[in-house]
Amino acid sequence: MSDVLTLPLAGETVLLHGDRALYYPAERALLVADTHFGKGAFLRRQGLAVPGGGSAADLERLSVLIGDFRPERLIVLGDFFHHRPRPGEPFLAAWPRWRAAHPTLTPEVVIGNHDRHAEGLDLDLIWHDELDLGPFRLRHDPEPVAGRHVLGGHLHPAYRLRGAGDGVRAPVFWLREAVTVLPAFGGLTGGWAVRPGRGERVVLALDGGLYPLPAAPL
């Protein structure tokens, strides 16, 4: 099992996982952001030599997380898809098999900007514009909401540790005032370099490990 970090958040306890996921025990909900399923197929259609199997590997990672936490709900914080999948794409065959392997799990998606291209697809998913869960507001775009702690994605936050050579660049959980941004889960997603503001923190998720950095000075 990868590293797990217990974190107090908005008066609740959540668990950060080194494979870029958050588990909320009180609601038995596993949260990930920005899976971008089908991105490899989309890039190959554009003529890029991207190897296949990316979506299948990401589904397997989700299966490991489900085995670790035994959640009742899987909630993707937007951009479940990268594009509207076409008939015959590997993900469309892999998804029903994966769902059959987890029959008691309820998969839900907070609609992201990429998901709007997939309207009308029937994949046994529950779709939300936004979702309230305990003290949290689950959104794709991680903008603050009065009276709620926002859990979001969209930004694909990453952080570079300076050091010898080129240093290390890794996805991060970005802990801001009343907003927590999850790292992108999809294996083919890039990252957007963040600079934590005053009092903000980042937790690096690198090779299954979690590495909290000190908060930026106030």
From TrEMBL:
Any one GO MF term held by the record is:
ligase activity
UniProt keyword annotations, A-Z? Endonuclease, Hydrolase, Ligase, Nuclease
InterPro entries per the UniProt record, alphabetical: Metallo-depent_PP-like (IPR029052), PdeM-like (IPR026336), Pesterase_MJ0037-like (IPR024173)
User: What EC identifiers does the entry list?
Assistant: 3.1.-.-
Q: Which PANTHER family match?
A: BLR1149 PROTEIN
Task: Name it.
Answer: Ligase-associated DNA damage response endonuclease PdeM
The organism's lineage is: Bacteria, Pseudomonadati, Pseudomonadota, Gammaproteobacteria, Oceanospirillales
